[in-house]
Design goal:
Layout: E1 3-7, E2 10-12, E3 18-25, E4 33-39, E5 46-51, E6 58-60, E7 68-73, E8 78-83, E9 92-99, E10 113-116, E11 120-124
Parallel strand pairs: 2-11
Antiparallel strand pairs: 1-3, 3-8, 4-5, 4-9, 5-6, 7-8, 9-10, 9-11
Length: 126
């Protein structure tokens, strides 16, 4: 069964950091763009970041630019999201997704992703 599994979430103090991982089983991520999305209780899903198949193109949401970094290691079939300088507004369930992104206008859209993970919880609290 094709699966994406996120890990690395947890409880962190404001200003802290985490490294989220997105690993695939039963398929290779090499041919997929990988996106990270997040959803907090009572809020709409928010696009966080996306990386192209080769890693030469990335995109970040305005709220995370300069604080989050997406990267991929195709040899390990894993994509990472380094999240720094966390604040309470970053608390959410973070999901990774794999798909074929056309980068129209340099953007990516949820409907371009076909496989989704179950999410990893990030809690920011002192």
């Amino acid at each position: 069964q094709l699966q994406l599994v996120e890990s690395g979430g947890g409880l962190v103090q404001p200003g802290g950091s985490l490294r989220l991982s997105c690993a695939a089983s039963e398929f290779t991520l090499d041919y997929h763009a990988i996106g990270w999305f997040r959803q907090a209780p009572g809020k709409e899903r928010e696009a966080v970041s996306c990386i192209s198949t080769s890693g030469d193109r990335t995109n970040y949401g305005d709220s995370v630019k300069g604080r989050f970094t997406i990267s991929r290691d195709n040899a390990k079939n894993t994509v990472y999201l380094q999240v720094n300088s966390l604040n309470p507004e970053d608390a959410a369930v973070y999901y990774c997704a794999a798909g074929f992104v056309l980068w129209v206008g340099g953007n990516y859209y949820p409907h371009e992703f076909h496989y989704w993970g179950q999410g990893t919880q990030v809690t920011v609290s002192s």
